[in-house]
Design a protein that fits this description.
heterodimer; A: about 120 residues; mainly alpha; Substrate Binding Domain Of Dnak, Chain:A, Domain 2; 4 helices; about 0% strand; B: about 280 residues; rod-shaped
C-alpha cells in the first residue's frame, strides 16, 4: 500500500521539481560577489569595464524579478550571463589599472633617464 | 528544424573566440583561451541540439565574454611585464645613482680626513715652533736679567751693549784688571756663553779727555786687550772676539764734571746679534 502510493507520488514530486527548481541563491550570490569585486577594483572608472558592470547589474536585477515570479531556471541562466559580464568587467578594470601603472612607470623611467 | 541559421550571438561568439585564439592571448594565457573554447563548444552543442532554444543565445553570450576575458587577461599580463621591466630599470638606475653618490661621499670624507690630519700636523708644528720660540725668549730674558745684575745692558742696532764702568775694572791710568773686576767679567763671560755662544764680540775701551789723546788711545786699547784676554781665558773663542781702543772719541756724558768723566771711562762689550 505505502510502496504503491510512493510509486505514484514520487514521479509527480520529481516532475514538479524539474519544472520549478529551487531559487538559484548560490548563483545569485556568486554573480553579486563578482560584480562587487569589479566595482571595488574601479570598474566604474573605466568605460569598457563600466559597461559590463552595468550589464551584470541589470541582469542580476532581472534575475531577482524572475526569482520572484518563480521562473528559477530562467533566473539561473540570466545569472550565468551576469556572472560572465561581472568577471569580464573585473578583468577590464584590472587591465586599466595595470595600463595606468605602466604609463606612470614609463614616465618615471624617462624622468630618471633624463635626470642623469 | 535542421538548416536554421545560427543566431547572431553564436556568430559573435565564434568571431570573439577566433580573435582570442589568433591574438597574443593564445601564447600569453592559453588556459584562459581554453576556457573560452569550452564555453563556445557548449554554445555550439546547444545550437546543434536545438537551434531555436534561447539557451543557445545565453551560452553564446557567455562564450563571447569568456573570449574577451582571455584577451583582457592576456593584455594586462603583457602590460604588467612592461611595467615590471620599467620599474626594474628605474630601480637599477637609482641604485647606480645611489652607488655613485655613496662613492662621492666616501671620497669627500677621505679628503676631509686627510686635510684634517694635515691641519693637525700643522698645528703640532706650530705648537713646537711656539715652544721653541718661548724657550729662546725665556733664555734671552734670563740672560738679560743675569747681565743686568752685574752691568748696564742696552739693546742697540749694533748688538747687545754691555757697559762696564772703568773705575770698577782698573786703577786710574792702569790697564791691569782688578781682582773684583775679574769676578764680574767671569759672570759676563758666562752669561754671553750661555746666551749667544756663536756671536762675535767687540771689546771697546773708552777714556775721558783728561791727559793726552795719544796716552788715552793707548790706554783704552790696552784696557780693551786686557778684557779680551780675560774673556778668552774664560772660554770665549779667540777668533770671535776683538779689542778696539777708542780713546775719548766716543763720550757718553760730559767731560766737564767728574761724574760725566767717570761715565766716559768705560769698557763696552758689544755682542753682535747671532748670525742666522
Amino acid at each position: 500500500m505505502t510502496i504503491r502510493l510512493l510509486t505514484l507520488v514520487l514521479p509527480l514530486l520529481l516532475g514538479a521539481c524539474a519544472a520549478t527548481m529551487a531559487p538559484p541563491a548560490e548563483r545569485l550570490a556568486t554573480a553579486e560577489a563578482a560584480a562587487r569585486g569589479a566595482k571595488e577594483l574601479g570598474a566604474e572608472k573605466d568605460p569598457k569595464a563600466a559597461l559590463h558592470l552595468k550589464l551584470a547589474q541589470e541582469q542580476i536585477d532581472q534575475a531577482r524579478t524572475l526569482m520572484k515570479e518563480e521562473q528559477n531556471v530562467r533566473a539561473d541562466h540570466v545569472l550565468q550571463r551576469a556572472h560572465a559580464d561581472a568577471e569580464l568587467s573585473l578583468a577590464l578594470a584590472k587591465e586599466a589599472t595595470v595600463n595606468d601603472e605602466t604609463a606612470k612607470a614609463k614616465e618615471k623611467l624617462k624622468a630618471v633617464k633624463g635626470g642623469k | 528544424m535542421r538548416g536554421l541559421p545560427p543566431p547572431k550571438e553564436l556568430i559573435d561568439a565564434r568571431a570573439a573566440y577566433a580573435a582570442a585564439q589568433q591574438g597574443p592571448a593564445q601564447k600569453e594565457k592559453p588556459a584562459e583561451v581554453h576556457v573560452a573554447r569550452q564555453s563556445l563548444e557548449q554554445a555550439e552543442t546547444a545550437f546543434k541540439d536545438d537551434p531555436d532554444a534561447p539557451r543557445t543565445k545565453d551560452l553564446a553570450y557567455i562564450a563571447v565574454r569568456k573570449a574577451q576575458l582571455a584577451e583582457a587577461i592576456a593584455r594586462a599580463s603583457l602590460t604588467q611585464k612592461e611595467r615590471d621591466a620599467a620599474l626594474a630599470e628605474i630601480l637599477s638606475l637609482e641604485s647606480d645613482a645611489a652607488k655613485r653618490a655613496q662613492a662621492e661621499l666616501a671620497s669627500t670624507k677621505s679628503a676631509l680626513e686627510k686635510s684634517k690630519d694635515q691641519l693637525e700636523h700643522e698645528k703640532e708644528a706650530l705648537a713646537r715652533e711656539k715652544a721653541l720660540r718661548e724657550a729662546a725668549e725665556k733664555k734671552a730674558a734670563a740672560l738679560m736679567a743675569d747681565l743686568n745684575r752685574i752691568a748696564a745692558v742696552k739693546q742697540e742696532p749694533r748688538g747687545t751693549v754691555i757697559t762696564l764702568a772703568g773705575g770698577v775694572l782698573f786703577r786710574t791710568g792702569e790697564s791691569t784688571l782688578l781682582p773684583a773686576a775679574m769676578v764680574q767679567l767671569n759672570q759676563v763671560a758666562d752669561a754671553i756663553l750661555k746666551g749667544n755662544p756663536d756671536s762675535n764680540i767687540t771689546v771697546e775701551g773708552h777714556t775721558d779727555t783728561q791727559g793726552s789723546l795719544k796716552d788715552n788711545e793707548v790706554l783704552s786699547q790696552k784696557r780693551a786687550d786686557a778684557v779680551r784676554e780675560h774673556l778668552v781665558a774664560h772660554g770665549i773663542a779667540k777668533d770671535r772676539i776683538k779689542a778696539v781702543g777708542r780713546g775719548p772719541s766716543v763720550p757718553v756724558a760730559s767731560n766737564d764734571n767728574s761724574e760725566g768723566r767717570a761715565n766716559n771711562r768705560r769698557v763696552e762689550l758689544i755682542v753682535e746679534p747671532p748670525k742666522k
